[in-house]
Design a protein that fits this description.
The chain is mainly α and about 180 residues long. It is built from 6 helices and no strands. The C terminus is likely disordered.
Length: about 180
């Protein structure tokens, strides 16, 4: 999907894009291809939207229709796009070592659990938020698999490799840049 900025100054294409997103989220709405032309397909899509949402059916996008489309578009868009990525913050040079407790370890332990199910060479961690013995072994076995120094500590290099491997192991479509 094109970035929102690409439709600035193109209200018809913006309308069509919002209607398309709504249709992808709710198949009761007709699908439309954004072409920037307020032709018969757009009139039909607007009319269908108006009918489905108890608005006067005119096929014309008046202010009430526009506002209703925008209101329904925003939650529909959230539901059809990929989930927002989560970036943890490790301070420069920060290393989480054995025996330390850190809220990020819950995320790491969850990812390692998934990786351990796929890659049997990665050992199963505990879910404790603590870099305990089992999690240290799990991180070390993941580091070995990834060609990293086997420290058992969580550092930025290990985090980067976890973030790259987790989507592949979890069956997700894309990997972060």
């Amino acid at each position: 999907m094109r970035p929102v900025e690409s439709f600035v100054g193109q209200p018809i294409r913006s309308l069509q894009t919002m209607l398309r997103v709504i249709a992808q989220h709710d198949p009761a709405h007709p699908d439309i291809i954004p072409d920037g032309i307020y032709g018969p397909e757009t009139v039909a899509a607007v009319s269908a939207f108006q009918q489905l949402h108890a608005l006067p059916v005119t096929g014309i996008t008046d202010q009430n229709t526009w506002e209703a489309i925008v209101e329904i578009y925003h939650p529909a868009h959230v539901n059809i796009v990929a989930a927002y990525p989560l970036e943890i913050v490790l301070n420069p040079g920060q290393i989480i070592r054995k025996g330390e407790r850190n809220c990020h370890l819950y995320l790491v332990q969850g990812m390692l659990t998934t990786l351990a199910e796929i890659y049997h060479s990665v050992s199963q961690p505990t879910m404790s938020g603590l870099l305990d013995e089992a999690t240290t072994e799990s991180i070390a076995s993941f580091q070995l698999l990834s060609g990293l120094p086997m420290t058992g500590h969580l550092d930025k290099h290990t985090w980067k490799h976890l973030v790259l491997q987790y989507p592949l192991a979890a069956g997700l479509q894309s990997v972060p840049d």
